[in-house]
User: What shape does this take?
Amino acid sequence: MKIVIIGAGNLAWHIAPKLKKLGHEIIGVYSRTKKSADLLSKRIGSDSFSDIERIPENADLYIVALHDKAIASIVRQLKFIPKFIAHTSGATPLSAFPVKFKNVGVFYPLQSFSKNRTVKFDSVPFLIESKNTKTKKVLSDLARQFSNNVHFVSSEKRKRVHLAAVFANNFVNHMYSLSAEILQENQLSFDLLKPLIFETAAKIKENHPDKMQTGPARRNDQPVIKEHLKLLRGKKQRKDIYTLLNQSILDKFKVRN
Assistant: This one.
């Protein structure tokens, strides 16, 4: 297929080279930031555009890989009706596309993307949505070229998947950051926690998280919890987070203790 990538951020940085490797022709990359468009287009050997009116109209598929808040405003600026168009957002509904666009969909890879990290797409879940059978087939066929983990999910359910992903990824990463701060303040290395982090992640490959829950709150070990709270004096936000998470664990498991 002839494909145009609208956006040049972390996801586009990974998805565009993969599409090219799969044999698709990337005929253009658009970004409001010329430097970003130029860098990605150079990476895959395509044209770049920072003027939306220069986007080619003859592509088979337009993949909109933009921040959520930019999707609706950018696609409404297109002066033509795309043959097929899909955004890659977990939180943006299908209704972000203009009504006059008939073949619209969602092509959402459920993964965290960073430009300096290689992503193996083989097992990445792709969440596909379209109310149009023809578009659904185009997007699902394309997704299966990336991964064998393809699902048809509505906008409402996809929003909930995205919410769950925020808890599992973004919030957990923030906990790593807070842990690193605590260690750094005490002249200790975050490397001390890495074996623990890796083992915790490995456990849930074959087990439900509830079965793997450990720690003072799971044991309802109040002396240890009180000692931790003493260590958090003067750090109100950390203390509030600690207290809230402890209470959540206590509430979840109190009937089992």
The beta strands are 2-6, 25-30, 48-49, 61-64, 85-87, 104-109, 126-129, 150-152.
